């Protein structure tokens, strides 16, 4: 049986009267790389901090490796890696000092050679202070610090934000390297859907604090569809197709965004409503995400009007 | 072998399909011959920087198509073309695709013999590669 390494139940957080995370029920199985996506302000960082016990929930609970997030004992914390948004590291320490400091939290499993090899690969001087490193170099130190303790569960909050393509790729390689080891799990948030698609086998989508999807990446890819139907005279008044998320109309065309509707059902619905033609548009992950998290009735920001 | 597989994130084609399509093309061209071993799932995943499950999914798609066979504990091998089977449905799909190409060609104003010549030219690229490969072995 596959274990659940991360679990939340009704996890909720209000900041004053603002609802940031809304009854999140999430289960992440062991052994996956899970891409955690949502628009800016969707509640990803808050959810991650709640999971790690860095924030107190207003209601609900969460568990990491079977332990309540609010009462994570050092023995459990040693098995969890966390990379903060923006790679905040102690600026006054040198790389070597930071390694020593970080190693003290993971006395049993810190891999000195692995850390040294990574720092050498990145060509970083160990005696340089963090404050004298560039953003990219700081991110590289942060990646080495995250992987050296060989964490069972690695949680990274937008680790590749603002990084160049080469350093982003190093993070992706790091995730793949970790996941190849027995029983390792990664959860990372990102806005770069190409990265998510590349390394994830699972995707979690939240929108306005609400969980919208938690499934394999392939299921998500197969589930969200765009269909364009053309009608001879006018579009049907009622669009009663299963799985309808958005419906946009022009005079003789319907553009539908559907979730989990089979191609067979689409064909039958098109026949029943007397559509002249219909076309199932293949979308990429980014288009799927934009449609999936779009508010109802969304129009394009700029439109070409025919004069 | 991983070097010639190109991953295009952001494509409407899922990554596992991209990997499977490129390997099946290599088999058709004879760059991979019957009995050749595909890279181990984890090795290819690390080289391409993609999830190992994505590689496994690509391999199982190739296996379903009869292009490779997996020997437990040993690896995935390109299967013997003589043992591959096709049925009427496979042939139907093939003729549909050919119809699409012929339609395009005729609508571009190409003559019958032009289309036949193009088809033979492209086919030769696959067949010649296979012959070359046999000679080298």
Give an account of the 3D structure:
The complex is a heterodimer of chains A (about 300) and B (about 140). With about 300 residues, chain A is an alpha/beta fold. In chain A, helix 4 runs antiparallel to helix 5 and helix 5 (about 135-145) runs parallel beside helix 6. In chain A, the strands form three sheets. A six-stranded mixed β-sheet of chain A has the order 6-7-8-3-9-10, with helices on both faces. Chain A has a four-stranded antiparallel β-sheet with strand order 2-1-4-5, with helices on one face. Chain A has a four-stranded antiparallel β-sheet with strand order 12-13-11-14, with helices on both faces. The N and C termini of chain A lie far apart (about 65 Å). Chain A has two domains: about 5-210, 3-Layer(aba) Sandwich (Rossmann fold); about 225-290, Alpha-Beta Plaits, CATH 3.30.70. In chain A, helix 6 links the parallel strand 7 (about 155) and strand 8. Chain A has helices at about 45-50, 75, 95-105, 110-120, 135-145, 165-180, 195-200, 215-225, 265-270, 285-290; strands spanning about 5-15, 20-30, 35, 60-65, 65-70, 80-85, 155, 185-190, 200-205, 210-215, 225-230, 245-250, 255-260, 275-280. Chain B has about 140 residues and is mainly α. Chain B folds into two domains: about 1-85, Winged helix-like DNA-binding domain superfamily/Winged helix DNA-binding domain (Arc Repressor Mutant, subunit A, Orthogonal Bundle), CATH 1.10.10.10; about 90-135, no CATH class. In chain B, about 60% of the residues lie in helices and about 5% in strands. A two-stranded antiparallel ribbon of chain B has the order 1-2. In chain B, a hairpin with a 3-residue loop joins strand 1 (about 70) and strand 2 (about 75-80). In chain B, helix 2 packs across helix 3 (about 50-65). The radius of gyration of chain B is 17 Å and the shape is globular. The mean pLDDT of chain B is about 90. Chains A and B meet through helix 6 and helix 7 of A and helix 2 and helix 3 of B.
């Amino acid at each position: 049986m596959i274990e659940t390494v991360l679990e939340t139940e009704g996890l909720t957080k209000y900041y004053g009267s603002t609802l940031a995370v809304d009854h999140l029920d999430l289960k992440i199985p062991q052994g996956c790389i899970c891409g955690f996506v949502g628009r800016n302000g969707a509640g990803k960082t808050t959810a991650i901090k709640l999971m790690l016990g860095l924030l107190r929930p207003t209601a609900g609970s969460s568990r990491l490796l079977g332990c309540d997030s609010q009462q994570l004992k050092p023995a459990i914390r040693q098995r969890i890696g966390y990379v903060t948004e923006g790679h905040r590291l102690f600026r006054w320490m040198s790389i070597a000092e930071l390694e020593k400091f970080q190693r003290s939290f993971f006395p049993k499993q810190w891999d000195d050679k692995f850390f040294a090899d990574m720092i050498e690969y990145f060509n970083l001087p160990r005696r340089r202070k963090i404050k004298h490193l560039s953003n990219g170099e700081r991110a590289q130190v942060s990646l080495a610090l995250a992987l050296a303790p060989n964490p069972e569960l690695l949680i990274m909050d937008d680790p590749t934000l603002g990084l160049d393509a080469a350093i982003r790729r190093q993070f992706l390689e790091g995730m793949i390297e970790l996941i190849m080891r027995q029983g390792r799990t990664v959860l990372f948030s990102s806005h770069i859907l190409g990265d998510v698609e590349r390394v994830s086998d699972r995707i979690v989508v939240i929108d306005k604090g609400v969980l919208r999807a938690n499934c394999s990446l392939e299921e998500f890819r197969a589930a969200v569809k765009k269909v364009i139907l053309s009608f001879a005279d006018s579009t049907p008044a009622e669009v009663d197709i299963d799985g309808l998320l958005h419906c946009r109309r022009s005079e003789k065309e319907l553009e539908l965004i559907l979730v989990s509707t089979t191609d067979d059902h689409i064909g039958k619905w098109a026949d029943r409503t007397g559509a002249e033609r219909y076309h199932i548009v293949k979308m990429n992950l980014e288009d799927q995400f934009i449609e999936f998290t779009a508010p109802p009735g969304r129009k394009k920001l700029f439109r070409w009007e025919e004069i | 072998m991983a070097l010639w597989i190109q991953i295009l994130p952001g494509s409407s084609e899922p990554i596992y399909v991209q990997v499977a399509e490129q390997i099946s093309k290599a088999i058709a061209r004879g760059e991979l011959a019957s009995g050749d071993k595909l890279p181990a799932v984890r090795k290819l995943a690390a080289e391409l920087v993609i999830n190992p499950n994505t590689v496994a999914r690509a391999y199982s798609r190739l296996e379903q198509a009869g292009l490779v066979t997996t020997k437990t504990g040993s690896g995935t091998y390109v299967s013997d073309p003589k043992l591959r089977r096709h049925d009427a449905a496979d042939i139907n799909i093939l003729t549909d695709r050919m119809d699409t190409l012929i339609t395009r060609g005729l609508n571009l104003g190409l003559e019958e013999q032009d289309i036949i010549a193009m088809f033979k030219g492209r086919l030769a690229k696959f067949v010649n590669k296979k012959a070359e490969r046999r000679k080298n072995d």
